[in-house]
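lol so apparently i was supposed to do this last week
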Amino acid sequence: MVKVITYGTYDLLHQGHINLLRRAKELGDYLIVGVTSDSFDRGRGKLNVRNNVLERVEAVKATGYADEVIIEDYLGQKIDDIQKYDVDIFAIGSDWEGKFDYLNEYCKVVYLSRTEGISSTMLREESQVNYRVGIVGSGRIANRFVPESKVVNGAEVTAVMNPDANKTEAFAQMHGLKAYNDYDQFLQNVDLVYVASPHLTHYDYVKNALLADKHVLCEIPFVLSKEQALELFTLAEERNLVLLEASKTAFCPAFGHIVTLVKSGIIGDVVDVKASLSKQVLPPTRELDSTQAGGAMNEHAPLCLLAIMKLLGLDWHDMNFHSRMENGVDIYTKGVINYPHATASFTLGIGVKTEGNLVVSGTKGYIYVPAPWWLTDFFEVRYEDQTKNKKYFYSYDGEGLRYEIQEWLSMIVNERKICYKLRPQESVAIAEVIEKFKNHDNVTEI
Ligand code: C2G
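anyway here it is w/ C2G bound
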């Protein structure tokens, strides 16, 4: 029996895929089709795949050509599969000509001519609404957003808004955008709004964008009070709009896997979460300005709180903070949040430097994520018996903003109002902790 194997994503399955599968099957007696997992595709930079792995597997099965469907989940798997399944022929489309010659060592490699004039990319583009994204604010993060948005299909940044005409003009010129100084005019000319303005302006910009029926992605810290956060999420829900907090770590591949590993019990019951983040800054800068809601807490708490909320939930029973203050802002804050059966702490610095790692301790073992944990691309699960330790590696492409942009667009396109990676109630809880600190609730100066 001649066994053939072929691989692909098979997104929006089309005639090109069907022809390829038919020809591959004709090469032998038994066809194995490897369908890429969602995380494998994300890892190799394919961020725009529309169908999830289950839908893609079903589509391949429905062609009737596959005798067996397997999932491709890691680089190098092809060599393993060929040997494991005793494969005679590896077949792939001619767009990969030469790229898989290294498999000749294990079996025969056949490049089958590709069907011209059709591709998943083409189909995605044809059915794609190209949303006009407007950026509010023209600072550091806004600058990073523009190139990151280019790797995600379905949206194009077309406008920038900042009440300061000089800043807007310079930003617009640099990125080829239309500049606005008037928010209402800006809202009339965009479909989606990314709020990356100073902290204290988030609430008004988000609210007005929602009232103008725009989907919103808002930078961290989303807002600085529970009430405002609740109000905005309620408004979004009433108007059937997507509102997402741009907490980039929440959407990056490695962090998501930490959460699912922990929830599946790999380290037993979680007893402690420690997250730290420090970035020293020098004056003059808004981070050190009390009138602009500066301070370590407003600046860095959202990411550390994200880790704590995702891993321990929202049912804490008390919390306290220890801060070193300078000119009205906390240059260092340590916070402790106690849960009925666990405790969590975070250390944040803008005028103090500390190790920025994440440690999740459990009854069976712990997860160690080295600094900078919020840009996670690697972590290790460790046990008393070190032979059981396991390291996990991931990609974290570019500045990482592409993951949140992709999630936001996918929510809009698929009319999904809630994202499990960062739920509204989690954003509300983060705002609540920030508010408690602002209200000097259990804050001790050191
Ligand atoms: N294909 C084709 N004609 C097209 C489009 C695609 O023959 N018009 C073929 C591709 O050459 C490939 C298969 O269909 O053999 C699946 O294509 P994709 O879904 O685009 O998957 P791809 O990214 O090529 O993944 O490990 C994954 C593999 O390396 C290939």
